[in-house]
Amino acid sequence: MQSTNHHPFTKGLLSWYRQHARALPWRQTQDPYAIWLSEVVLQQTRVAQGLPYYLKLLEVFPTVESLAQAEESVLFRHWQGLGYYSRARNLHKTAKLVVSDYHGKFPATYNDLIQLPGVGPYTAAAIASFAFGEAKPVVDGNVFRILARYFGIETDILHSSARKEFTDVAMELIPQDQPAEFNQAIMDFGSLQCSPAPLCASCPLSLTCFAFQQKRIQDFPVKQKKAKQKNRYFNYFILEQGGQVLVRERKERDIWSGLWEFYLVESAQEEELESLVEMDDNLSTMFSNATVQFLKSPKLHILSHQKIYCRAWHVQVPDNLDISNLAGFQWIQPEDFEKLGKSVLLLNLITDNLHLKIFNDSMPR
DNA sequence: AAGGCGGGGCG
DNA sequence: CGCCCAGCCTT
């Protein structure tokens, strides 16, 4: 029995592991070469996907010497289909380096291991603990997720400071006398129990888990959404009739909701004026007899998550054309439009076109 | 500090 | 289709 001064998390985790440990081949060895090989294969790779590659690689290259002597092309052929091919290149580099600089014996400490090509904080901790019993916690996606949930850590795991913070927490939890068991356990726990879609109903740690107790499992780990900068193409038409302009309030669930703007046609890509008019029924009607002028405008407007390519036209609509009932739009005096909230993009557009009579009569500045 | 690198499984 | 996986390296 272990001493009872372990954190409740650690006790519960190790207890769970005694009943649920997966029998994985790289756990049947203490050979740092085999362990290193498995860890590199498993970087960003599911066990089920990496397992056959590991077995085959160990069969073809049973020792670090055999790997070091192999042609890189042979290694690549065996790596093919596994992805992240720089792993194979670094694998070969490290094998040759271990043979040439370390007499074929892997360095035995975290600090030396992490110097090897393709060996980062996670892999160094894994080898150090599994092969040499050094008490360094592994901190991978599983550990981020588990600790964030259990302790309610709000730190964005994509932030540069996150690794240190989570490593510090894990360092407090890892038992000095059985670091390998702890590290294996926390990864099985992350894979089988506290997975991205966790099985809280059967979890022995749920009673002391912050996220579960607060019913906030969905909130952890905190991970900033990738702001996939989308390209958008805004085509503004400043429609004028009898000294008034056609405007509307943006109300949809989108940028600038609540602000006012001119007639907008958004397209999926850059379009010619003719295509835009053709695509838009209202424009088709109004353009039948109108005077159109291409306007200077901000070409590009950048938001945190969107790049907006902008073009604009001024359209003088004939007075005799009745287009009063456009849903959501209204004709307005320019001096009244001036008082309404507008996006910076639109303000810039106006500033660029103060020569238009409707603007220089009404807009201050 | 941010981006790139792969293929596959899952909801 | 987006997210995630036993991360690491480069810029």
UniProtKB/TrEMBL annotation:
Keywords: 4Fe-4S, DNA damage, DNA repair, Glycosidase, Hydrolase, Iron, Iron-sulfur, Metal-binding. InterPro entries: A/G_AdeGlyc_MutY, DNA_glycosylase, Endonuclease-III-like_CS2, HhH-GPD_domain, HhH_base_excis_C, HhH_motif, MIG/MutY, MutY_C. Its EC number is 3.2.2.31. CDD domains: ENDO3c (cd00056), NUDIX_DNA_Glycosylase_C-MutY (cd03431). Residues 41-192 form the HhH-GPD domain. The keyword Glycoprotein does not apply. Pfam families: HHH, HhH-GPD, NUDIX_4. Signal peptide: none annotated. Its cofactor is [4Fe-4S] cluster. Binds 1 [4Fe-4S] cluster. It catalyses: Hydrolyzes free adenine bases from 7,8-dihydro-8-oxoguanine:adenine mismatched double-stranded DNA, leaving an apurinic site. Belongs to the Nth/MutY family. Adenine glycosylase active on G-A mispairs. MutY also corrects error-prone DNA synthesis past GO lesions which are due to the oxidatively damaged form of guanine: 7,8-dihydro-8-oxoguanine (8-oxo-dGTP). This is Adenine DNA glycosylase. The gene is mutY.
